[in-house]
Write a structure and sequence with these properties.
The chain is an alpha/beta fold. Helices cover 43% and strands 10% of the residues. The strands form four sheets. Strands 9-8-7-10-11-12-15 form a seven-stranded mixed β-sheet, with helices on both faces. It has a five-stranded parallel β-sheet with strand order 2-4-3-5-6, with helices on both faces. Strands 1-16 form a two-stranded parallel sheet.
Length: 588
């Protein structure tokens, strides 16, 4: 039986059945087993000896017991000490804290992931507030810039123009067959850092480690992919150590054909219910890909939809501090790309739902400023299609400060990717217009943030409610400690993805994003508002993700988008029960 199973696995013929432990059928009972049950460390055969120590899925290092060392031919291959997972975790956290350079911590964490998968996730889950900035923004930005130098071994699939015509074969080369989530980038717009080409792989790898740590998806069900169509970054093209294609970016038909082949191959290989998350594509491609494939695939763009959902959650929560409804506020954005227009549209949809007014009407409460100034009707002809709904009647305004004076917003949102653009004058004007100005400086990484927490609090005389995309330390002002919030997509996408998977959703609908925002906003309690926070602390992130997943799944069932039947009685409990646990298993 075992040999026939393995043969099926090699041929990729295993049914993509669903069970517990994050969703995919658990062939060897590893996730359905309780933590005290014995499991067999299968690879292609039963892993033992040196092979077992080199297999990150099953390696436990010094935590192998005396009995396991005898049974799996590990005697002499390990020092004699036997450690618990908790002791290993304590030692590693001590070692990580010795590093003064964040990139060194990042490399150490990636080494651990390649060596001992369960310990990596145990560390990340138990120390999420400390380690999230290491494996994700802001450190992941620097890691992508230097990815060629720190590249050790492949952590995902690289699909380049060389693979055109054989992408399905490339997907079959990946050792895991039952994939639930793919995060894919083409590296053209990595955070606020621009075109990093093939080195953008750090983003899908980082995102998927958060899908597991924060959303509870099994690591084996996650696949990071970089599509390499070249780069327009001259520095990389002239770098002899660059790891990607050394050519200018393919565009137009050549690009579209490669993406079409990729999307068809994904569906053919992994089925209808695999979630494809687009990540850090340039504006023009991001909108086109989302519009094209949202009708035929289960797709999600974190830059457009994830950012929008997390910002909307913060706005809904902030109403407890600001008062009124969303429709009572006026919003001004600096930046009219993927993030800006995505957030604006979701705010308009939520206002439309609350006020029972057409979305065309609620859009009029939202104004956007791009590199040429305020988006107004007189600019309609020259605007890109995704900016046109935001062109309202107003005389042209060039500068952000003048736009603030003219529009008199209650909420200022930065998605420009350009640092230091919320100047002292802009923040002071916001503070003069509003008792409690809400200022969201969302651009990543920290160097690209429109202003710092300290600047927002100081210039507003401590009155601003502030949140940013990357983390900032608490600020002392006038004898008070002000704690900035972080509008981090990591609040939303892991729970959102889990909700899609546990319900067997086949398409993403805007109402699912609203459901995720409402669930996150509901997790902000009065003790958080007292500190001026509009997001809950990350220390409870798995519980938050379970609530988001349950709300998203419930909405998917209500809309008839769910295929997992019957509907579980208690979706919060079910979401929690499906989450991957990084605790070591005992081996036969």
């Amino acid at each position: 039986m075992a040999s026939s199973m393995l043969k099926e696995m090699r041929n990729g013929d295993v049914d993509n059945k669903y069970g517990v432990g994050g969703g995919v059928e658990d062939m060897y009972g590893e996730d359905t087993a309780t933590e005290d049950q014995l499991v067999t460390p299968w690879t292609v055969s039963v892993a033992s000896g040196y092979t077992l120590l080199r297999d990150p899925h099953h390696n436990k290092g010094l935590a192998f017991t005396e009995k396991e060392r005898d049974a799996h031919y590990l005697r002499g291959l390990l020092p004699p000490a036997v450690m618990t997972q908790e002791l290993q975790e304590k030692k590693l956290m001590h070692n990580l804290r010795q590093y003064t350079v964040p990139l060194q911590r990042y490399v150490a964490m990636m080494d651990l992931q390649e060596r001992n998968e369960r310990l990596f996730y145990k560390l990340l889950i138990d120390n999420v507030e400390e380690l999230l900035p290491v494996v994700y923004t802001p450190t992941v930005g620097e890691a992508c810039q230097k990815y060629g130098s720190i590249f050790r071994r492949p952590q995902g699939l690289y699909i380049s123009l060389k693979e055109k015509g054989k992408i399905l074969e490339v997907l079959k080369n990946w050792p895991e067959k039952s994939i639930q989530v793919i995060v894919v980038t083409d590296g053209e717009r990595i955070l606020g850092l621009g075109d990093l080409g093939c080195q953008g792989m750090g983003i899908p790898v980082g995102k998927l480690s958060l899908y597991t740590a924060l959303g509870g998806l099994r690591p084996s069900a996650c696949l990071p992919i970089t599509i390499d169509v070249g780069t327009n970054n001259e520095t990389l093209l002239n770098d002899e150590f660059y790891i990607g294609l050394k050519q200018k970016r393919a565009t137009g038909q050549e690009y579209a054909e490669l993406l079409e082949e990729f999307m068809c191959a994904v569906k053919q290989n992994y089925g209808e219910k695999v979630l494809v998350q687009f990540e850090d594509f340039a504006n023009h491609n991001a909108f086109d890909l989302l519009a094209k494939y949202s009708k035929t695939h289960l797709v999600f763009n974190d830059d457009i939809q994830g950012t929008a959902s997390v910002v909307l959650a913060g706005l809904v929560a902030s109403l407890k501090l600001l008062g009124g409804n969303l429709a009572d506020h006026t919003f001004l954005f600096l930046g009219a790309g993927e993030a800006g227009t995505g957030i604006a549209e979701l705010i308009a949809l939520e206002m439309s739902k609350q006020a029972k007014a057409p979305v065309e009407q609620t859009r009029k409460k939202i104004w956007l400023v791009d590199s040429k100034g305020l988006i107004v009707k007189s600019r309609q002809e020259s605007l890109q299609h995704f900016k046109k709904p935001w062109a309202h009647d107003h005389e042209p305004v060039k500068e952000l400060l003048d736009a603030v004076k003219a529009i008199k917003p209650t909420v200022l949102i930065g998605t420009s990717g350009v640092g230091k653009t919320f100047t002292k004058e802009v923040v002071e004007e916001m503070a003069s217009l509003n008792k409690k100005p809400l200022i969201l400086a969302l651009s990543n990484p920290t160097s690209q943030s429109e202003c710092t927490a300290e600047e927002a609090y100081t210039w507003s005389k401590g009155n601003a409610i502030f949140a940013s995309g990357s983390p900032f330390d608490p600020v002392q002002y006038d004898g008070k400690v002000l704690v900035p919030g972080q509008a981090n997509n990591a609040y939303i996408f892991p729970g959102f993805g889990l909700g899609l998977i546990i319900s067997g959703a086949i398409r993403v609908h805007d109402d699912l994003l609203l459901a995720a925002s409402e669930a996150l906003a509901a997790q902000v309690k009065s003790k958080h508002f007292e500190k001026g926070l509009i997001y809950p602390p990350f220390s409870n992130i798995r519980k938050i993700s379970a609530h988001i997943a349950a709300n998203v799944a419930a909405k998917a069932y209500d809309l008839g988008l769910a295929s997992r039947l019957p509907r579980p009685q208690d979706l919060v409990e079910y979401a929690g029960s499906c989450m991957y646990s990084p605790v070591y298993r005992s081996y036969r």
